[in-house]
């Protein structure tokens, strides 16, 4: 961000070729402001006509009518110009909003998958949507209004000096004082305050979502809102900063409004002082009348400009938040791409720790998963199995050592190509709200319907397709059609089969399956893993007995390795786990 523009300039850099249109919109808004001042002048001249009648002249009805019509004409032109200004500024604002959203989404597409664990999709969506909307509001409405208010103010100041500088100048000094007091009393830290305030608001919204997600737990365990201490604290923090922000504005606002609204306290005595030196009563009343009509309009414009300052700060803060996404570190692409010829996977002295943790999740991990063979990762909860598996498709970059495919460091393989080489079956796969056909086709977008059906068949999905109203064309998530955990898992295996990648990573893929489903998932695996390099994270030891190699993990490293029979003979960690596993199974049967 160092050599990047900031604030409003930064927002405008997303306008692209529409930037000129915004200048046009601001010019139109400025011109429309001049037209909208016009009726004030007309009212002034009409009032002069009426005062002349009091001073003994004949009523000039035609002149009054003319001023009225003139005022109406000016107002109409002003409104039309203002409409055109807003139309133009909206076009620019929508483009900026769209470009900001696209830039953020494009940037996210190149973020490592691990980034989305720390920044869940809901949070990112909120940051992108809400902040880009905030910039849209500022560009579409507030920026043209600001120009209009500035033009009105400048014109007002000129008129005030031209009509009678002896009354005009003291009024201008008074308004200047109000403006100065307001900006100095509201403090130089208001931008910082705005940031903290918006942070607190964001945290509160996020905690509210978390609270609602966990509402089932709250109900089942009869807990209260207070039991969700994080949500409660977030509300309290927001309250604290909202109040602090309001209080920080208090002095400046009060001083400004008090001075501006008491302008008559200055206008009346100065008017009378000037009146004594004015040759005729008519001249005095005429110029005094101008200030009576015009000074409230100037006060309104000043007020508008004052509020604009806070809207501007809000828009700048919104841009800063989107920039937090746009400047987050992407995974670098290799300068000289390399491609493996074979697909064995090697971990060479790999160490990796998650952000904000001081303990590595895997530490000096070294092993080789042979091509065409099954390597199983087992171990107690938290021993680092899933972390090791997630390093293969580069969900995270290792801090030390290297993960290699066919002897090539995965950081040297372009990400798109690496993704084509690895199929990852998650513990908790997600289906899109789309037809099953498209959900499976996500594995290979160019696949034909027949190929998708074949993959579904190999993944044991025939019974799922049969029971759905439109078979493979049924939309998941609509009209109450959902799949069970085990069924979803089989669809995700069909997706992986279709992808036909040479390396398959299975992360506890049978974790949520019942015995019937587990049997089907195991059969589905047969269709997926034939002749592939398979790395399988497993809790249920029954699923790894036939693996070519079993790696037993402990504290992020390998405690022992071998085939099932080797490890049983060895009577170490695995033998204990196997023993415990059998006791559990037996306990289930007996009970
Ligand atoms: N996103 C994360 N951020 C920070 N720490 C994490 C994250 N994911 C896992 N860890 C930590 O890393 C260590 C290894 O976790 P990992 O999930 O790899 O273990 P595991 O053997 O797969 O466990 P399980 O069998 O329970 O899934 C644990 O101490 C865990 O708390």
Automatic annotation (TrEMBL):
Organism: Oscillibacter hominis
One Pfam family hit: ABC_tran
Designated name of the protein: ABC transporter ATP-binding protein
Matches recorded under InterPro entries: AAA+_ATPase, ABC1_TM_dom, ABC1_TM_sf, ABC_transporter-like_ATP-bd, P-loop_NTPase, Type_1_exporter
Signal peptide: none
Mode of membrane association: Multi-pass membrane protein
SMART domains per record: AAA
Protein's cellular compartments: Cell membrane
Family matches, as PROSITE patterns: ABC_TM1F, ABC_TRANSPORTER_2
Main location: membrane
Keywords: ATP-binding, Cell membrane, Membrane, Nucleotide-binding, Transmembrane, Transmembrane helix, Transport
Domain ABC transporter, chain residue ranges per copy: 345-580
Transmembrane regions: 21-47, 67-96, 254-276, 288-307
Annotated ABC transmembrane type-1 domain residues: 21-310
Domain of life: Bacteria
GO MF entries: ABC-type transporter activity; ATP binding; ATP hydrolysis activity; ATPase-coupled lipid transmembrane transporter activity
A GO-annotated cellular component: plasma membrane
């Amino acid at each position: 961000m160092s050599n990047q523009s900031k604030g409003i300039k930064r927002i405008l850099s997303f306008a692209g070729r529409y930037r000129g249109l915004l200048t046009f919109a601001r010019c139109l808004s400025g011109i429309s402001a001049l037209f909208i001042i016009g009726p004030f002048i007309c009212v002034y001249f009409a009032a002069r006509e009426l005062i002349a009648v009091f001073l003994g002249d004949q009523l000039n009805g035609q002149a009054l009518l003319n001023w009225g019509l003139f005022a109406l004409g000016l107002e109409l032109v002003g409104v039309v110009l203002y409409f055109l200004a807003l139309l133009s500024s909206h076009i620019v604002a929508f483009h900026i909003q769209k470009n900001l959203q696209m830039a953020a989404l494009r940037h996210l597409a190149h973020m490592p998958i691990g980034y989305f664990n720390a920044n869940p999709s809901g949070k990112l969506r909120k940051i992108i949507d809400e902040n880009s909307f905030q910039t849209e509001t500022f560009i579409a409405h507030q920026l043209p209004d600001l120009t209009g208010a500035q033009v009105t103010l400048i014109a007002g100041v000129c008129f005030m000096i031209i009509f009678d500088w002896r009354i005009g100048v003291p009024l201008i000094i008074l308004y200047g004082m109000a403006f100065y007091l307001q900006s100095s009393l509201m403090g130089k830290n208001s931008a910082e305050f705005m940031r903290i305030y918006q942070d607190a608001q964001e945290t509160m919204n996020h905690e509210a979502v978390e609270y609602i997600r966990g509402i089932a737990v709250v109900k089942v365990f009869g807990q209260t809102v207070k039991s969700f201490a994080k949500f409660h604290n977030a509300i309290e923090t927001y309250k604290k900063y909202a109040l602090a922000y309001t209080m920080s504005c208090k002095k400046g606002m009060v001083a400004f409004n008090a001075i501006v609204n008491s302008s008559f306290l200055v206008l009346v005595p100065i008017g009378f002082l000037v009146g004594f030196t004015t040759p005729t009563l008519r001249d005095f009343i005429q110029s005094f009348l101008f200030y009576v009509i015009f000074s409230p309009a100037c006060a309104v414009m000043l007020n508008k400009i004052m509020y604009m300052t806070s809207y501007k700060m809000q828009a700048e803060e919104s841009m800063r938040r989107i920039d937090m996404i746009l400047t987050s570190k992407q995974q670098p692409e290799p300068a000289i791409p390399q491609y493996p010829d074979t697909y064995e996977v090697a971990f060479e002295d790999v160490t990796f720790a998650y952000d904000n943790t001081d303990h590595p999740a895997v530490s000096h991990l070294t092993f080789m998963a042979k091509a065409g063979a099954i390597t199983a990762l087992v171990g107690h909860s938290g021993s680092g199995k899933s972390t090791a598996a997630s390093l293969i498709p580069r969900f995270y970059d290792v801090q030390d050592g290297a993960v290699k495919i066919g002897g090539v460091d995965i950081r040297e393989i372009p990400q798109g190509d690496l993704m084509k080489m690895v199929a990852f079956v998650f513990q908790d796969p997600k289906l899109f709200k789309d037809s099953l056909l498209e959900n499976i086709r996500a594995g290979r977008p160019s696949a034909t319907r027949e190929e998708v059906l074949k993959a579904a068949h190999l993944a044991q999905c025939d019974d799922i397709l049969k029971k759905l109203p439109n078979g493979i064309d049924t939309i998941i998530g609509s009209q109450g059609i959902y799949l069970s955990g085990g069924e979803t898992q089989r669809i995700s295996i069909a997706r992986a089969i279709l992808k036909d990648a040479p390396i398959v990573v299975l992360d506890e893929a049978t974790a949520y399956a019942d015995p019937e489903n587990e049997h089907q998932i195991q059969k589905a695996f047969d269709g997926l893993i034939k002749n592939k390099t398979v790395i399988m994270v497993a809790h249920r030891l029954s699923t790894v007995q036939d693996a070519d190699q079993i790696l037993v993990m402990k504290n992020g490293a390998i405690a022992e390795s071998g085939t099932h029979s080797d490890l049983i003979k060895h009577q170490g960690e695995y033998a204990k786990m196997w023993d415990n596993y059998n006791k559990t199974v037996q306990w289930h049967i007996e009970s």
